[in-house]
Amino acid sequence: MGDKNFNAYQMAQSQFDKVADILSLDEPTRQLLREPLREYHFSIPVKMDDGTTKIFKGFRVQHNDAFGPSKGGIRFHPMETIDTVRALAMWMTWKCAVVGIPLGGGKGGVICDPHNLSMREQENICRGWVRQLAKNVGPINDVPAPDVMTNAQHMLWMLDEFEVIHGGKQPGFITGKPVGMGGSLGRTEATGFGVIYTLREACIKNKIKIEETTAAFQGFGNVAQHALQLYTKLGGKAICVSSWDQKDQTSYTFKRDSGINYDELKKITDKFGGIDKTEAKKLGYEILDGDIWIEQKVDILIPAALENQVRGDNAVKIADTVKIIAEGANGPTTPDADKIFQEKGIFVIPDFLANAGGVTCSYFEQVQSNMNYFWTKEEVLTKLDNIMSDAFEAVYNTAVKNKLYMRDAAYVISISKVAHACKDRGWL
């Protein structure tokens, strides 16, 4: 997100254009699906703790809602841009379609850095975001959720503000809420576990025993943490993770050849995924440059940070041992890096398939909130496993049958579904 020369929206449109050509989509369909149906830009005035007033810029993009209410997270990030939000909303459309849930694609954001804001200031940003959009979001038209640097507390503040404005209880308005306040068991683990469910299936298809593999992770936020947790539980050995250091404003790779213990590393990690370097050294970790994760001689790479992290300039450094890349982040791999992976014969599980566990479990939460009946954690994770495994199977079969790269196969399925939904509604 910090690379000024990178535009996530242009990348998302380029990926769409490639598959639109494969599908021979007509021009009106291309025009409709290539851009958002609607988007909102607004200012959020907040009275700061020091008595001054600061204006924060907010966004909400609704890319397509042919299948149902728009669905997508709200991220707080100092480098947020409208084009990043547009891209993420577009990817959410394809993500919901590929796993077959009745939702469309949306995304939101605020340009801010929670590291430098008090809880009261963050609460006021959350409530201000809802006030600006109260007429345009809700359980029947657009359902937000947490994303980068937002959490269950932020969602609860937003829900409370929405209910105050509309004068009633509407827990289905937003997902990612605290358990006991309308949140779903299993939601915290869902995205990371979903990545590993698809990785497990990819290993089976490629005749690889997951318990004999090694892996490197980029990022140690919620997605990477739970992906690493389940991966090691299944017998795999994670040898390194990268982590952003807020104080130094740079990333580091934490490597231990004997393997990473999830519980041990989690204890020295802050709520933003930052790992304590001093404590890590005591536990025997090497602390290396943040980009070193991609050069490790491992079987599996799991980028689970931000978009534009795996590019042509660093993809060439990937060791020849890598067999599978499972994209835990949204848009981590650029088209020029994809070409390198295809040439190397690396099996890629594309982002909007691999990390669709989050939106799938958000859908489960929405359903449970609307009917005021909640499932056990085992039920949630079993349903999630089934949906992720079925979606992987469909994409894999499409790729094999049509001799397509996995990313292209996933797009073929998603774009076809959304295009048909738009035509069936009479939009085209």
Distance between the termini: 34 Å
Give the CA-based shape.
globular
Round the mean pLDDT to the nearest integer and report it.
95
Q: In percent terms, what proportion of residues is strand?
A: 15-25%
Largest sheet: 7 strands, mixed
Within CATH, the superfamily of the largest domain carries the name NAD(P)-binding Rossmann-like Domain
Helix coverage percent: 40-55%
Number of domain modules? 2
Query: Can you identify the CATH class of the largest domain?
Result: Alpha Beta
Query: Segments where pLDDT lies below 50 for 5+ residues?
Result: none
Number of helical stretches of at least 4 residues: 15
Order the strands across the largest sheet as they lie in space. 9-8-7-6-10-11-12
Q: Which structural class fits the helix and strand makeup?
A: alpha/beta
For this structure, the CATH topology of the largest domain is Rossmann fold
H/E element string? HHEEEHEHEHHEHEEHHEEHEHEHHHH
What's the alpha carbon Rg, rounded to whole Å?
21 Å
Q: Report the oligomer.
A: single chain
Tally of strands: 12
